[in-house]
Structure prediction request, 728 residues.
Amino acid sequence: MGLDASHAAVVRLVNDFEAHKRVYTAHSYQEQELRADFLNKFYTALGWDVDHVEQKNPFEQEVKVERGVKDKSSKRRADYAFYTAPNFRDPRFYVEAKRPGVDLAAKDNYFQAIRYGWNSQTPVVVLTNFHQTHLLDCRYKPDIDTVLERRLRLYTLDGLKDPEKFAELYYLLSREAVASGALEKFSAAQPKKKGKAVQFGLFKGGYQRMDRTFLTDLDGYREVLARSFKRANPVLDGGTLTEVTQRVLDRLIFIRFLEDKLIEPDYLVSNFGGKGTVWGDFVAASRRLDAIYNGIVFKHHPLLDTPRFSVDDAVFGDVCEQWAHVNSPYDFNYIPIHILGSIYERFLGNVIVTTPKGAKLEEKPEVRKVGGVYYTPEYIVRYLVQQTVGRCIEGKSPQQMATLRFCDLACGSGSFLLGVYEILLEEHRKWYAANPDRAKRDGCVLHDDGTYHLSLAQKRVIVVNSVYGVDVDPQAVEVAQLSLYLKLLEDETTATARSYQLEIKETLLPPLSRNIVCGNSLIETDILDGHLFGLEEERRLRPMDLKAQFPKAMADGGFDAIVGNPPYVRPHNLTKTHKEYFWRHYPVFKGKADIYTCFMQRSVEMLKPGGYFAYIVSQSWLALDSFDELRKHVLEHYKVLQLVELPDRVFEEAQVETMSFVFQREANKTARARHRLQVLRCDKGAVENEFREVRTIPQRAFESTYLSVFVTAQGGPIGQRLDTGLAA
Prediction:
């Protein structure tokens, strides 16, 4: 529907409203009626398929309408969420509706609406009662005292009838405009707030994204708790403080997630202290939730959950008060789980160290040496997972997918594992949508809208069967498991969770200790032969028999795909013990090569024939002399399916130039030589980043270059470098 037709339809709605305004603004006229009579029709006039006339697949609908779930105190869902194909994961904007008799410009209304958008990182949110339409700025942390300053546009009924004013709204909120990135461009053009409008609590400064704010707040809570715990328990060392403070925060995050997702029917954090001490109620809740959920977060801790651990209840109570739903700007129903993972990736770069005066937060030595922690942007995770796991599962039934296993050998907070799990869930949903006769038989749940959804039992089986990871940091392993648990529970409700427990009589979360393991993917236990390491050094090394950790995968010949973002560490930043071990065991690690070369060699040992392998790494390995053994290793074992040039500054705070690759393990030399690889370039877009093919090149071309270099010496982007001097 074009501008003129859209305007005509909206003018008819305005005239209908004005003709019976007394009825529509009466207290008896409710929000549900407004949505049916006006708002659904209004957004339909803007080109959105609100009633799903065209978009029948429930997993590929651009408008999701909330059915009015409420609790005792307030509604906990935005009324409308708008998406644009093909991305049905990330909302473009929300609409929060109120009945026409309500004053929209109230602090609580603005705070509620902005909270939805800020947590989802959408640029604006719409607050409307049709009588008025307010566009609100979602760039800033919600603050009740300044929230009324956040209005960007106001459209009244007269404005909707005015062609020029309506055109302004149309070119922001119509389906066509939103798909072209109009809201993002509009938001980027807005001036940054100054003065009182910027209130951030623990940090100072102006506009800051939700993930950065969350990280700052999380670090602040961690330091406050660590100091308090140290004062009350003077014997605690830095390692123990790091562990216990993270466990407390993980529990608080999980509990708030359960509250905001309506999985737990009652608010918990805000009521700590109502039956006894705040800490006592917190521990009691943890023990109760452990019996329901299982998982690493609520698991009985040998220190935290015992009377031996002393706590300043006033300090802990203050943290809980700030964290509770009534005060916190965070809404875990709207924070994407992959964003939580990216926050935790940076969170894990710091540890608690003890000082003569107590405790403080400090960057890990290994992180400081390499210049920080850099998490992989979600669009790259999604692309690499699609090119590996996606190739493995395409067209397969759930029974066939159940035999496949996928791994990240340096999983960190689990961003790639989460990507793997998400694509598995998505493919299962698509298969059952296309095969509804099998859905009920396989245990899918029939929803009120007549569609089948994966049951909790099915989602448990999928993650246990197929998702595996390793990390040397025990806190990272805990967070990776936490992320997968949050994803598993994402679409559950109080009713579905309790129904599962009554029927299956199991805890809601499966144990993942055999899936996500703590250890060193590169260092085997042979490092202990003939060496007498101290307990602390052995703990840092964490040697293990990697293949023994995953017996089922190894019995089947290895993993079907390995994907991830390995550490980038040059030899001068490694300990002597690490360097000497890598030099002995990894021929690809030579000269000034990077530790990621060891992960690339290790991966082929863990991958089954025909399996897929994708990493994001620096561009150095393509041409530098120190990486010649790695290039030979790649050409000897893999078909190089793709080399991808990534945009500048993929890692915001790092200077390293990055690229990604997709390989397939191939033992047949002739097949490798005949293969033509793709060279792609990732171009930044206003909305989605596009992976565009530059050209194809025969793999044998690299075997004839000096030291098997994958580029020439002319420089420039990867696509140009590979395009120069190589045979077509």
In short: The first strand starts at residue 63 and ends at 65. The chain has 31 helices and 19 strands.
